[in-house]
Design a protein that fits this description.
CATH topology of the largest domain: Aminopeptidase
Low-confidence stretches: none
CATH class of the largest domain: Alpha Beta
Number of domains: 2
Distance between the termini: 20 Å
Number of strands: 18
């Protein structure tokens, strides 16, 4: 099973499933067919399905459990990856190369073809040995997660919910990886919630004219002033139940309260985790795009900005009201993408199994839930009432920063991390 997982991940990394956010990419069909073929090799009967186009594809598989009265557990992984231009990479991003140091290189190594390969390896092992899990398990490999899931998980929930077979709990991505704290303590964050997402466009209008004259209705100036006002009043720290548990646990490990309002001190306390942690405990708003004008000597009639807003659960209306209150008269706000915040208490049988197995496999493990700053397919699946946790287990090397691998140049994963992860995943599924 360990060797199978490594080989499956390497092969998946060699399939380019880049998702540029439109239909110009290669799609996920080749990867879906590969995964389905690997399942058929051991006598399983997966379904390859397409969503909004012939190349936007996924895989669904139902595995009966020994207790047929229990609701299924959903195991999810997405097949697409963010684009990866070769410039700057030590090894080509779709090489799936294992170097002499035991590192597997490629786009998707931690997001999230690692988990897809581990899922395939586990269920292939079960099929070969005739094992039936304690409850039914549904494997669902999705397209389009990297572009928000419009052609993937959200489409499935809206048009093909039967592919989930009535699952009531789920396991997905961005959790279960090890993080080394200063002083040698090791935590395994488990994603039990996600911030909400609003991608909005602000359009400010004014009076066009010659650039050599004095203008009192310049839309560029009004837009810049608006963005400056938003930047001058950042959102403060607010702990959700998930992050309160995280902060309390990690404060105990470092021996003092976490300095959530002091970036430099927080970095001393938790190392590289500080960059992510700061965004987990507050709403963030970042201007990401600006557009105005077409010529140096012409004041334009319109200026446009794109904002990426990530809000804490339960705060959407207040955040939106605050943004709207700062806009100048006549400005327009348009939504490009609007997705919910989710939060699930980290308790119950799945949570207990995760804590128990990680404790067995790594006696130094401290398992703690956290609120993810980005978004995953969890947003779609929780809309059906599922309890959903991000758990793609990896024990990273102490000198490797998981977060820097995520969407980064030289994305890679140690072979031993995958070997650890597939055994942990197998054990968790046997206990829940």
């Amino acid at each position: 099973m360990r060797a199978d997982a490594v080989e499956l991940v390497a092969q998946l990394l060699r399939i380019d499933t880049s998702n540029p956010g439109d239909d110009s990419g290669p799609g996920e069909l080749v990867a879906a067919q590969f995964a389905a073929d690997k399942l058929r090799e051991v006598g399983l009967k997966p379904t390859v399905f397409t969503t909004t186009g012939p190349r936007r594809a996924g895989v669904s598989l139902f595995l009966p459990g020994s207790d047929t009265d229990r609701a299924p557990l959903l195991l999810t992984g997405h097949l697409d990856v963010v684009p990866a231009p070769e410039e700057g990479w030590t090894h080509p991003p779709f090489s799936g190369l294992i170097d002499d140091d035991g590192i597997l290189w490629g786009r998707g190594a931690v997001d999230m073809k690692d988990m897809v390969g581990m899922i395939l390896a586990v269920v292939r092992h079960w099929a070969r040995t005739g094992y039936a899990p304690p409850r039914p398990v549904v494997v669902l490999l999705t397209p389009d997660e990297e572009a928000g899931g419009t052609h993937g998980a959200h489409w499935i929930v809206q048009h093909r919910p039967e592919l989930l077979f009535g699952a009531t709990e789920g396991i997905g991505e961005v959790g279960g990886f090890s993080v080394e704290l200063p002083g040698g303590r090791r935590i395994y964050p488990i994603q039990s919630g996600e911030k909400g997402l609003m991608w909005v466009t602000i359009k400010v209008t004014g009076t066009a004219g010659h650039g050599s004259l004095i203008h009192h209705d310049n839309p560029v100036e009004k837009l810049v002033a608006t963005l400056h006002e938003l930047a001058q009043h950042p959102f403060g720290v607010a702990l959700t139940p998930t992050m309160q548990e995280f902060v309390d646990t990690v404060s105990g490990l470092v021996g003092e309260p976490l300095a959530l309002g002091d970036r430099e001190l927080l970095a001393q306390q938790v190392g590289g985790l500080s960059r992510v942690l700061g965004a987990c405990v507050r709403t963030t708003l970042n201007p990401t795009m600006l557009s105005a004008g077409f010529k140096h000597n012409v004041v334009p009639s319109q200026a446009v900005a794109g904002l990426d807003i990530r809000y804490l659960p339960g705060t959407r209306d207040q955040v939106l009201e605050r943004v709207l209150s700062i806009l100048p008269p006549g400005a327009e706000l348009e939504f490009q993408h609007d997705d919910i915040a989710v939060e699930t208490p980290f308790d119950g049988g799945v949570a207990d199994a995760i804590v128990s197995v990680l404790g067995d496999r790594d006696p130094d493990a401290v398992v703690v839930p956290y609120l993810m700053t980005g978004g995953t397919d969890a947003k779609a699946f929780t809309s059906l009432g599922l309890r959903y946790f991000g758990f793609s287990p990896l024990r990273m090397r102490p000198d490797m920063d998981f977060w820097s691998m995520f969407h980064g140049v030289d994305e890679r994963v140690p072979v031993e991390a995958l070997e650890f992860g597939v055994e942990v995943l197998d054990s968790v599924l046997r206990r829940c």
